[in-house]
Amino acid sequence: MKKKLNVVTALAVCAALSFTACGGSASASSSSAASSTPAVSEAASGDASAAIDDLYQQENQLFADHADAWNKLFGMMGKSESDSNGDYADFLAGTLEANKDSFTEEEIATLTADIESIRGIEAQIAALQSQVDTSSAADSTNAAQEASPFKNFSATDFDGNKVDDTLFSNNAVTVMNFWFTGCKPCVGELSKLNELNETLKAMGGEVVGVNTETFDGNESAIADAKKVLESQNAAYRNLSLNSDSEAGKYASGIMAFPTTILVDRNGNIVGEPLLGGIDIQENYDALMQQIQSVVDADNANQ
Predict the structure, then answer these.
(1) Separation of alpha carbons 127 and 144, rounded Å
(2) Which of 91, 84, 34, 41 is nearest to 58 (CA)?
(3) How far is CA 29 from the centre of its chain?
(4) Can you tell me the distance from the alpha carbon of 180 to that of 170, in angstroms, rounded to the nearest whole number?
(5) CATH T-level topology, domain 154-301
């Protein structure tokens, strides 16, 4: 029931305080609680969270104004078969309907009117919460983008060619697979990664391997890694990172292998890392679903 699980407790506290503490700044009647003007104006001013708090206060005021009827209804909630995880107004209405024989006609009329006011309030809360969630998601995305370890990217492939951040800008999605030569699950998925690379070419993407033993152009480690790749018929690009680069530090922090991430055209990590080999069908399906979402987003932005 979202925050409403606290309502019974709140009413008990209010009873002790003669209901003077629940109104806050919103001493609203049923009719004013249903009005959308205060919520919209506060949202427009960028204070959606404060508007949500105000709306919850309006609901609490309804409970306080008709405390006897509401306390009776709250006490019967365990008897209702309504879904408390669904629409809150529907939940309250369902509880009332299931126990209507226990209420007078006046109580039913009062509670029904309050429930309809709550329905309007809940609609406003949902709209405002969507704004808050969208803003929070945007802030999180911006923070993640600013912190991406693949900005100003620089590396060398196993043939000695320099690679920069055009690696990402030229691809709708870049699948980066972190592995090391002595990791059996890592080696076990190499041929599957090569197949995935061929699939991604048609989608505007690419698979890139990062062997964490080959940092700083370690020639011996690169030679060993190339032998393993050849034995698995894996011909996609593999990179050696500089250990002191941001990308190198990111790779050094990986504790589980193999780990696979997706990077978009702007060098930003998208979604959560995939742990484990994609030769496991469940992992492959999950990765392909992520890849498709990144490609779709890229197409939408073109």
Answers:
(1) 26
(2) 34
(3) 37
(4) 26
(5) Glutaredoxin (3.40.30)
Angstrom distance (rounded) from CA 212 to CA 176:
12
Beta-bridge partner residues of 154:
164
Give tens-digit pLDDT for 87-118: 888 889 988 999 989 999 999 999 999 999 99
C-alpha–C-alpha distance, residues 43 and 33, integer Å: 16
Domain boundaries, the chain: 2-145, 154-301
What pTM did the predictor assign?
Answer: 0.54
Please give the Cα distance from 115 to 170 (Å, whole number).
55
